[in-house]
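Give me structure tokens for this 265-residue protein.
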Amino acid sequence: MKPIYAVALLSALTLSNCHEENVSVKETRLDYYIESFDVDGLGFDPQLKVVYEYGESGQIDKYTVLGYNPTTEAMEMQRYFVFSYSGARVDRIAGYLSGADSPYIEDTYQYLPNGDVSTITEDNHAAGVNSTATFTYLENATVKVSYTFSNGGAFDYEFVYSGGNILSDTTTRGSELCSDGQYTYDQHHNPFSDLGYVDYLLTNLSVNNRLTEDVNFVGCAFPSLIPESYTYEYNDRGYPTSATTLYKSGDPAAKSRREFFYKPV
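Here you go.
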């Protein structure tokens, strides 16, 4: 089952239009970011680097994930993801492990006539499990995403979207409540919202950066680290140059940091 704490979607009313507007008006784009962890209070250790590539139209073509190898003391490529489009919309994302010729995972997209995402189907060839995320756009700025899996698993993620951000959400499995959460945001640009696509885990689409989250995990599953608050540094264009996450579970010294690097359009 996908993590029940995955969050963020686009507007229930202007999903595709929001993407097209972001792509056309942004003056900078995310080049890469480095993610580091401090688990003992002795300093941040870089563990991950994600690099983005774009086509002439400004659409994302590929991103590559590199992980830190303690033996070589260097970042080494682990996997990469290739995008294909139908017009201005993503219709397929294929993920490849380093050195592989065939994808280990594939996401395919379908859209409603107004351009909103209707389904994302994920074929996880490595795990041997397929799944589908089905989007239902409800009243009062509420969106429900139903996840069903080929192994019989299923859960629903429902959230309230206002001002371009997720304000509250609930995750349920059948009649069982898994979690519910409340969130606050800053007024600066979220660099992931400019990438222009709905990711399967719904993590990259709030237009601002999250400041706090108060999530009550009731059942189903419990993450080992639960984020509580975020602090940022910004550049003169209003994009974060660093984001530090503080957690309310696990080692009280544990925290993580992302450093963002940009290039002009």
